[in-house]
Amino acid sequence: MNLIRVIVFIFCLFFISRANAQLSGTYTINPSGGGLPNFISFDAAVSALTSQGVSGPVIINVAPGTYTVHIVIPQITGVSATNTITFQSSSTDSTLVTLFYTYTNSPTENYMFMLDGADYITFKSMTFNAYDGEGYYGTVFYLTGGANNNKFLNNAFYGKSGYNPYGIFFRDARRKQCFR
User: Fold this and answer.
1) N or C terminus of the chain: which is more exposed, having fewer CB within 10 Å?
2) Would the CA dihedral through 146, 103, 124, 157 be positive or negative?
3) pTM of the entire predicted model
4) How large a percentage of the chain has pLDDT more than 90?
């Protein structure tokens, strides 16, 4: 009987990977590393959300600064009408957090954020600058894959005119989005 317990213990020790805890609560994005629990970039925050999922509402306060952003947010495990994800300026002043991307001459790279099936995500009180890079491109949010119930609140959007100057582009996304 003890031999079986030892074998089970060894099996668990070596063959079952340790699961990360799901995210819940308030976090920060701060490149200087201040403020715990902290992510140093949007990429790091989205990577944690994607790999760990959520078990409660998540608020990610973004420290004042300028951020280069080009990221895909897929469907996140555990997200629901109750367990939402909010990216917001830590100061609630949209002029203190600016996100931008230097667009290339590639239609497949024409976004700052691609919400690919992502639901219940809020972007609040930030500035999105789509002026930089290739003149024909400048989509800030590309919603696809059935992205649904996302909110864009108290943000400033700056773009350019051109061939493909969408601030927000919907493709295969449900139209249940909120803009204020």
Assistant:
1) N
2) negative
3) 0.81
4) 46
